[in-house]
Amino acid sequence: MSASLSGGARAVARCDLLGSAPYSDMPGGLYRGYLTPAYWAACERLAAWMDDAGMQVRCDPAANCIGRYEGTIANAPALLIGSHIDSVRDGGRYDGPLGILLGIECVAALHRAGRRLPFPIEVIAFGDEEGSRFPAAMLTSRAVAGTLAAEALDMADAEGVALAALIDPVTYLDAARAPGTTLAYLEAHIEQGPLLEAEGLAVATVTGIAAQLRLQLTVTGMAGHAGTTTMPLRRDALAGAAEMILAVERIARDDASDLVATVGRIEALPGAANVIAGAVRCTIDIRSGDIERRDRAADAIVEAIAAIAEARGLQSVIEPVHDLPASPCDPALMNLMDAALAAAGQLPRRIVSGAGHDAMVMAALCPTAMLFVRCRGGISHNPAEHVDPADAEIALQGMLGFIDRLGATFEPA
Ligand SMILES: [Zn+2]
Hints:
Layout: H1 7-17, H2 37-52, E1 56-59, E2 65-69, E3 78-84, H3 97-112, E4 121-126, H4 139-145, H5 163-166, E5 182-190, H6 195-199, E6 203-209, E7 211-220, E8 224-225, H7 237-255, E9 260-262, E10 266-269, E11 275-276, E12 279-288, H8 291-312, E13 315-324, E14 327-328, H9 331-343, E15 350-353, H10 358-362, E16 368-373, H11 389-409
Parallel strand pairs: 3-4, 3-5, 5-16, 6-15
Antiparallel strand pairs: 1-2, 2-4, 6-14, 6-16, 7-12, 7-13, 8-11, 9-12, 10-12
Helix pairs in contact: 1-3, 1-11, 2-3, 3-11, 7-8, 9-11
């Protein structure tokens, strides 16, 4: 790779290199599951790049690849910079790796300049964020944050390969970082949405991960013959569910905020062309950076569904599936990031992340900061995922400015 590339362009080029064999387990596309041959190949490649950038490299008991660049003050807590190296099946090349490669570029730039911060910097490649191999997500950041339970390791992938057969479950939780040893966690990630592109911005400061509520809706009516049941006599669960789904959409639209609500899965029973649907099951996913806003919307949705059911002579039952609180980024770190981006010539912009990231797990351990990088068309979890090298360079300058500012405000214990 040419030495004349900017750090941002080099990070993008390295994501591209990691997008195919031997760093992918899928011919003609990218799939890198946790602890697969492609996974280990990618860790080996990252370790070599970390070494080139002046870092001491280790693999922790959860198989996270970590590079450490010492600071000037002994025993100072480390700034952790990272993201995930695993991918979804037939995924994009930048979702995860970009944040790791930009972290390596931060250290490479400091190393080239012969500079050290008061605190050490560690770049971490988390092994499992997507949960695309084992039936659990964010396994490795939960291990590092110390929030993973040993029972969670007792699982197997779709082929029946036990996690414990691939990695030592006895030492796994030793990946936890001792409280007080981590100054902050910084993650750059592609936006995975269309907002930055629509606004003509390369990057934005992330305010946090949205609170998410997942509900299961069951609508029950009366199954009947599609040819003989006259329209006034019907109690059609599917037509009722359709009206309910439109109500979900309308309530979220009318809020005109960061609130989003989605019915992404629907099942009609008995599911035959000549039978009026007697029951429908569907999911409702509601998210906002503001949990009160989310819960107000959820209340409005529940009320609207009940009214529609009543008017149509249907029964509706709503059960919670999961309820994740918002994970706000640290306000002081957000200010440092805003200042760093402004110094890099960017208009200030803050956005909430509708998607989950390792940062939300790391928030249990230390203050967190996130930076979003524009991706073309907002497309992600798709081979068409694309990041402009110039945007990655702006992100890199923002991260370096953030590190400088963190260094200037650092007070040793
Ligand atoms: Zn990701």
